[in-house]
Amino acid sequence: PFQLLEIIRKEDVVLRAILTTHHHWDHARGNEELAQLFPGLRVFGADERIGALTHRVTHGQQLSFGAIRVRCLFTPCHTSGHMCYFMWEDDSPDAPALFSGDTLFVGGCGQFFEGTAEQMHTNLTQILGTLPRDTKIFCGHECTVRNLKFALKVEPENEAVKEKLAWARQRDDEDLPTVPSTLHEEFLYNPFLRLTEEPVQRFTGRTEPVEVLRALRSQRDNFKKPKERPNPQAMLAFDWGLFGPLLEKK
């Protein structure tokens, strides 16, 4: 949370609330510390496992923070209590934003840790897929290059995939973010939103959309797994500087 505190000081704003998509430590880890630092802080979420939770929200519930409007969109699958947040401002020329956590990624979707392909299909087609096409997609992780490498394997002739992958690689080389994308863009290259496209069905050997999705996720889970993968918690702790005191020279 110290990175968030630095941003708060830099932007000269007051932290009033936290919208948490799900309980996994890499999305909710700082809640307790922030709640201690900011008495009265409201923590919103849909899962009792979320740290420091004060307000449990439900699907379709609307929240307001000044001019910012928020619609809570329940998307169980990655976890059983996953909530996405759709945000907009009335009379604003800016496009709306979706904070999709680990449900929808740039070029991909989340793993089915606590749910089913049927649930993810509903999430992607009936809940998130029906949002305005100009919606900006702010997902929970930067895994765009790897997602698009898989998308290219699924649709090797898809020019939108090739162009987005080249762009994402360049951004990655320059240590720049690939987030956000837009929902319109995702329908062009994200195989998990293209379940009825013939090349995607041919790749999976399925035609029924839920079965296409199930096969895609299975293939993605086994896509070029590194032989030796660093512990993700340790890598994130290193990125956050938590090992700094141990690495300082005496």
From TrEMBL:
<keyword id="KW-0862">Zinc</keyword>
<dbReference type="InterPro" id="IPR035680">
    <property type="entry name" value="Clx_II_MBL"/>
</dbReference>
<dbReference type="Pfam" id="PF00753">
    <property type="entry name" value="Lactamase_B"/>
</dbReference>
<dbReference type="InterPro" id="IPR036866">
    <property type="entry name" value="RibonucZ/Hydroxyglut_hydro"/>
</dbReference>
<dbReference type="InterPro" id="IPR017782">
    <property type="entry name" value="Hydroxyacylglutathione_Hdrlase"/>
</dbReference>
<keyword id="KW-0479">Metal-binding</keyword>
<feature type="domain" description="Metallo-beta-lactamase">
    <location>
        <begin position="2"/>
        <end position="141"/>
    </location>
</feature>
<dbReference type="Pfam" id="PF16123">
    <property type="entry name" value="HAGH_C"/>
</dbReference>
<comment type="similarity">
    <text>Belongs to the metallo-beta-lactamase superfamily. Glyoxalase II family.</text>
</comment>
<dbReference type="GO" id="GO:0019243">
    <property type="term" value="P:methylglyoxal catabolic process to D-lactate via S-lactoyl-glutathione"/>
</dbReference>
<protein>
    <submittedName>
        <fullName>HAGHL protein</fullName>
    </submittedName>
</protein>
<dbReference type="InterPro" id="IPR032282">
    <property type="entry name" value="HAGH_C"/>
</dbReference>
<dbReference type="GO" id="GO:0004416">
    <property type="term" value="F:hydroxyacylglutathione hydrolase activity"/>
</dbReference>
<dbReference type="InterPro" id="IPR001279">
    <property type="entry name" value="Metallo-B-lactamas"/>
</dbReference>
<keyword id="KW-0378">Hydrolase</keyword>
<dbReference type="GO" id="GO:0046872">
    <property type="term" value="F:metal ion binding"/>
</dbReference>
